[in-house]
Amino acid sequence: MSGRALVLTDGKAGHENQSKAFARALGCGFDLVEVRFNFGRIGKLCSYIHDHLPSFWPMNQAVLGARTADRTFANLHELCGNLQGKGYSAVLGTGSGTFFAAKVVARRLGVKCGVVLYPRGYDLGSFDCILAPSFDSPAKLANIVEIPANLVANDAAFYEKGVVAFRARYSGATDNLVGVIVGGPNKCSTMSPEWMKARLDEIFAANAGAQLCVTTSRRTPFEVESVVDSYPWAYRLIYSRDRFNPIPAFVQLAKRLYVTAESTGMLSEACTFGNAEVVALDNLNPGPHKFRRFVENLRRDGYVDGCRKVDLSAEFARARELMGL
């Protein structure tokens, strides 16, 4: 291990998991502390201003929510004082809710700062390491390490445990398992019952004789879940009725995985672990938005519509170098 990292989290599981993956890639144990901007968007706006005018940093524009029973709060200045002498080797964060705070805390503690995702609008050169997704078209700077997909904090033991849990619920064959992972609409995608039916008809026609398994998610509209539920699956997980997570087993066991294209986290996981061919189900809105760039980049490099898996060993080695670990 290379020491211990302080991971600042905005409370979003997807961001938090990427920070955990970053810490593990650096060889660090980690402690989690939640940070939130004071006055919401106003505080966030102030952080951009303060980042470009460091002489005016009052260090109290963001508010820290400590993970304690009573959820007490203290400002960043007080946080930095409380963390002095804890022996942290680095401060890490993922997402815009953590970028400024990670930089402030790292400077006060005298350690390096690493972030995941692209801190657009902040002073890029003052971060020690930025793991930036290629779909954000990051600047070509020495401290920016470009990555093709989101970081995933899982490991082999996680998937083995997921397979055991899945087999306790499903006793059928898995030698020809095909998984379907259905997300839901967002600002850059849509999902209608008609679209879902057309995709499922194609999937069943293309995989005759396979053990077809499906899971919906918390974002899947009810009317789309109804369409999914109407097909003759070997195994189905309808999220509105059952919160079990079969995705680790799908990733580990499937020969082919279909994932709705707006599900960047699930596409990243499917393209990183297991051996499945990954197919993106295109529910994206027209236009050159980042979700489209994400899928097109994965397809171009053989991760989507192919079986190539993401290998970040070179990128992680560069990150360790930048972080001095």
Notes on the protein architecture:
By secondary structure, the chain is an alpha/beta fold. The chain has two domains: 4-148 and 313-322, 3-Layer(aba) Sandwich (Rossmann fold); 156-300, Flavin prenyltransferase-like (Rossmann fold, 3-Layer(aba) Sandwich), CATH 3.40.50.1950. It is 35% helix and 20% strand. It contains eleven helices and 13 strands. It has an eight-stranded mixed beta sheet with strand order 4-3-2-1-5-6-7-8. A five-stranded parallel beta sheet has the order 11-10-9-12-13, with helices on both faces. The radius of gyration is 21 Å and the shape is elongated.
Task: Give a short overview.
By secondary structure, the chain is of the alpha/beta class.
Please provide the count of β strands: 13
Question: So what's the oligomer here?
Answer: single chain
CATH class of the largest domain: Alpha Beta
Major sheet: size, sense and barrel closure?
Answer: 8 strands, mixed
What's the SSE blueprint?
Layout: E1 4-9, H1 13-25, E2 29-37, H2 41-52, E3 62-65, E4 73-75, H3 76-83, E5 88-94, H4 99-109, E6 112-116, E7 129-133, E8 144-147, H5 156-167, E9 177-181, H6 193-206, E10 211-215, H7 222-229, E11 235-237, H8 247-253, E12 256-260, H9 264-272, E13 277-281, H10 290-300, H11 313-322
Parallel strand pairs: 1-2, 1-5, 5-6, 6-7, 7-8, 9-10, 9-12, 10-11, 12-13
Antiparallel strand pairs: 2-3, 3-4
Helix pairs in contact: 3-4, 5-8, 6-7
